[in-house]
Each structure stands twice: as structure tokens, then as C-alpha cells.
Amino acid sequence: MRREADRRPSTRPTSRPPSAPTIPTARGAGELLRLLREHEGLTRSELIEHTGWSRSTLGARLDSLTAAGLVQSSGVGASTGGRPATRLSFHPGAYVVLAADFGATHVTVALTDLAGTVIAETTSELHIADGPEPALGWLVDAARQLMDEAGATTTQLAGIGIGLPGPVEHTTGVPIKPPIMPGWDGFKVASWVEERLGAPVYVDNDVNLMALGEHASAYPGVDHFVFVKVATGIGAGLISGRRLHRGAVGSAGDLGHVRAPHAPDVPCECGNTGCLEAVASGRAIAAELFPGRPREDIGTREVLELLERNDARATAAVRRAGRDIGEVLATVVNLLNPSVIVVGGSLAAGAPSLMAGIREVVFARSLPLATSHLDLVPSRVGSRAAITGAAVTVIEEFLQPDSVDARLATLGVTA
């Protein structure tokens, strides 16, 4: 286990709130906390001005939030002749969040505060194909150890976010026929983990979480955004109107199982042939470069090792894979018209020729209007994207105004 003090970029604006009231008087402490999250360091007078509440109503709701540990003093304002007014801010250290990112051959678990700041984390090699109970059992043990090391109790655990490398029915936290996850189909991941850790569990496809993490950290002001992961598999996370689009049953963005236009009839692990993932993923490229070795024994790591040695065959194969991805991604550009496409994942991080192949085809095959203001760029957040997205998922759910009000009522401190 290792500890970190890795400050995630804040997505909360720090400007003063507008002069018009921002909180309807009928709403409660949860809405007040949202205002304090959006605008740090407000005085009681400023809060009264911008809520329209009486001093007694404001005081009661602040007392509730303070008793729950969610609000703290953050210095004093400028004096206007009398005693300087105390400024109040959201306190992200009141609760902790567990965020887990499962890949095909690894898992990372991090403990964060309510601002997404990593307190401690651990990473291990782990094969998702070994089944749900061994993988999730490791997660539970690691989570308990991280909390023990940080001195956090179960009552401080706001929730657990989990990313899996396959399709997930988000509302139930159940994987649905994931191609590279034997034994996981229909397994009740959320309830299994919740029974053992005693906090709400949110499960999603890892690429969706990578999209959320990259968007929150690097592109919070972008309305239409696509994240493409290229690693052992290929997938996409789609954000439209600043909201993640999961589709009817959680399978939106399954880019890897779109048929590649010029691909041969290569069998794919999903059961079809000619899928993009079957010809352009890290494992597919490795199979091409190491034809005598079993597919299950090779993957992205071996491709990256060849690229580090400037192997010409590997460079050409990766660029060709980039073109295949670009053919499919051009359709996404024409259909969804994003303003930013970020390409991440372990293969993208170590293979500049992949991005070159993608850009070559996307800008040639997409409509000029759709690409006139399109940024197609590598990930800024890198391997942290899924962990960040998992934490963001929990934090946003936990700090919804209605959720805050309900928690205060449970604690007996509601106003």
C-alpha cells in the first residue's frame, strides 16, 4: 500500500455568487451546501443575501451542516469597521470515498476525500477472468486496509465507485454478458460489495468512468465530449450536454464491437467477426506481431515493449490500428459532433503512432463542419482517469441536495 497527497484538479468555481437569489426558500441544508461547494468562503451575510433566508433559518441549517462535519470556518472576511466576519466553506475531509478501477489484468483501489483528493491507494496484478468473488474479495480486503491506514471508520464512508472492463447495467450494478469477464454475467456486484463494506456501491463500465474523470479534471466546461480507451479492449464514453450518455441498458459507447470497415473476418471474443477490437486492440496487435504465441499470453505490454525498441513492424501495426479506429470514430464524429475527443488507455499512452493513425482518418473521413472546431487529443489525466471518475460518481451522488437532507435527518441534525 502507498499513501499519496495527489490533489485532483478542482472543478468548483471560486467566483462570488450572482446577486440574484440562487436557492429557493423552500429548499434545505443540501441546497446551502451546494452553494458553499460552488463558491468557497462565504460569510453569513453573503449567504443571507443570496438565499433570501432569515438569519435564524440560515443559522439552523448551517448548524446542521456543521454538526455533520460538512461545513467549516475558512478564515475571516475584510473588516468594515466591526469584527471581521467568519467565512464558511465546504469541508471535504468529513467523509471518505473508495474508488476502484478493474482492468483485464490489474486493479487499483484509492481512498479519497469528498473533493476527490487521493489519501491512499494500492494497485495489484489481478486477472478479471478469474471470476467475481476472487476479484471483489481482494477489493474488500484492500479497502479495509486503506481505511485502517487512514484512520477512517465505516461511518465516514460515503460510498464505493467501481469500474469494470465490460458492459454494466448501471441502475443495478450488474455486468451484462461482458466478453472478457467469464463468470461475471448477472453477478450482483453492487449488493455483494455493499453487504461487506456497508456503504452504497455504484458500478459502471470503466470507460464511462474514464470519460467522467477526464471531463471533470481537464474539460469541465466542454458540453460535448468523447473519451476513447485503447488497451486490451476498445471502448468509448460519451458525454452530451455535460451528462454521461449510457443508453437504454448501459451499452452506449461500445466502440470495440462495431464492425471495422476494412477488417477481415477475424473472430472476436464477443462472438461476432470483424469487430474493431478484434483487429485494433492491444491484444489484437500483439497477436499479429507474435503469431506463434497464444492470444491469452500476450497483449498491450508486449506491443509497448516493441515500440520502446523502435521496432518498425510494431510501429506500422499500431498506426494501421489507429486508422481502423479512425474509420469507426469518424462515424461517431458525424453522428454526435463532439468538440473534444480524448484518446486514452495503456496503448494510446505509449504509442504516438496510434494517435497519428486516428487523426489521419478522422479528419479525412468526417464532415468538415464537424471537424472545424474538433480537438482530438491524448489523455491529460492518463491512468488516473477511471479512479477519478469512480470517485466523482460517488461524490456527486452523496452531495446531491436531497441526499444531504436525508443524511442529516438520519443523523438527527436536520433543520
Question: What structural keywords apply?
Answer:
disordered N terminus, six-stranded mixed β-sheet, 415 residues, alpha/beta, 40% helix, single chain, 15 strands, 3 domains, five-stranded mixed β-sheet, Nucleotidyltransferase, domain 5, Arc Repressor Mutant, subunit A
User: What percent of residues adopt helix (DSSP H or I)?
Assistant: 40-55%
Give the number of helices: 15
Here the CATH topology of the largest domain equals Nucleotidyltransferase, domain 5
For the record, the CATH class of the largest domain is Alpha Beta
CATH superfamily of the largest domain: ATPase, nucleotide binding domain
Description:
This protein has 415 residues and is α/β, with parallel strands linked by helices. The chain has three domains: 9-92, Orthogonal Bundle (Arc Repressor Mutant, subunit A); 94-209 and 386-411, 2-Layer Sandwich (Nucleotidyltransferase, domain 5); 219-380, 2-Layer Sandwich (Nucleotidyltransferase, domain 5), CATH 3.30.420.40. It contains 15 helices and 15 strands. It has a six-stranded mixed sheet with strand order 1-6-5-4-7-10, with helices on both faces. The protein has a five-stranded mixed sheet with strand order 13-12-11-14-15. α6 (206-218) packs across α14 (385-398) and α10 packs parallel to α12 (352-365). The longest helix has 25 residues, at 312-336. The chain is globular, with a radius of gyration of 23 Å. Residues 2-26 have low confidence and may be disordered.
